[in-house]
Amino acid sequence: MDNNWFFKYLWRFNAIVIACAAIFSFISIGFFTVEQTISKPVVVQETVNIDREDNISQEYDLYISNQIDDKFIIKLTLDQSFDFKYFSKDTEENLMNVGVYSPLTGHTNWIFPTSNQLIVNYKILYQTNKAIQDRERKAIGQLFSVVERDTTQDNRLSYSDDKSVWSSTADGTKLKKIIPHIHSNVIVHYLSDDQILLSYEDTEGYKTALYDPITQTVSSRNTIEKPALTPQTQ
Predict the structure, then answer these.
(1) Tag placement on the chain: N or C end, fewer CB within 10 Å?
(2) Any domain includes 214
(3) Residue 100 lies in a domain
């Protein structure tokens, strides 16, 4: 009888020890997972921290992306690291400026006079002649969707801010704002070499505009109206 009593409580003791060990293991795994989550930086794009009170580590990079005739497109990108609440945050490859570089002269013509804006969309416009091979098509201009300032007042330049569309010639000169205050990236639809249809969204809805890359002018702006939405009948 005494032996049964001893083994009965020994089993109970072992069960309690195993249960405590399992609970400790679960807690340890939970703390480890939380620690790994907190310590691992969150990586985002198209977001630039402009908060002067934050401790920001940042680095600018240059690289060649495209060729236009005998010149090359140089992109200036910005990487940032900063603390955000309980974890660190990294922003990578934010496009801040675009330049046209001549290897013959060593000169780079930077399209924007400063690098304080965020370029969220960039396009080189080409001739529309389909008979010409892509590598032989001539560039006829450049388009940029640009965040100029923090309109959402969150101390960030990001896609959620107000954007504007800018244009330049193929060689990066004659910078001009052609469409202000849009909410989306501009989409390019080729009609002819001197006429391009641009589509975008703003506060009034989904719009289109005709763009002439030769004169850098916009005309025939229209809003595409939605059809009447009526509830379905049973």
Answers:
(1) C
(2) yes
(3) yes
Q: What is the maximal distance between C-alpha atoms in the chain? A: 105
Does residue 129 belong to any structural domain of this protein? yes
DSSP readout, 147-212?
E-S-SS-SSEEETTS-EEEEEE-TTS-S-EEEEEEESS--EEEEEETTEEEEEEEETTEEEEEEEE
Q: Are 91 and 49 in contact (CB under 8 A)?
A: yes
To 10 degrees, the CA torsion angle through 204, 205, 210, 214? 70
Q: What is the bridge-based pairing of β-strands 42-44 and 87-102?
A: parallel
List the domain range (segments joined by +) for residue 200.
42-223
Q: What single letter denotes the amino acid at residue 232?
A: Q
Q: For 74-122, how does the pLDDT look when each residue is reduced to its tens digit (9 = 90+)?
A: 999 999 988 765 456 678 889 999 999 999 999 999 999 999 999 999 9
Angstrom distance (rounded) from CA 32 to CA 231: 52
- Residue 191 in any domain: the answer is yes
Distance (Å, whole) CA 35 – CA 32: 5
What's the whole-number mean pLDDT along residues 134-138?
69
d(CA 178, CA 98): 18
- For the entire predicted model, the pTM comes to 0.76
pLDDT tens-digit readout, 149-180: 999 999 999 999 999 999 999 999 999 999 99
Domain count, the chain: 1
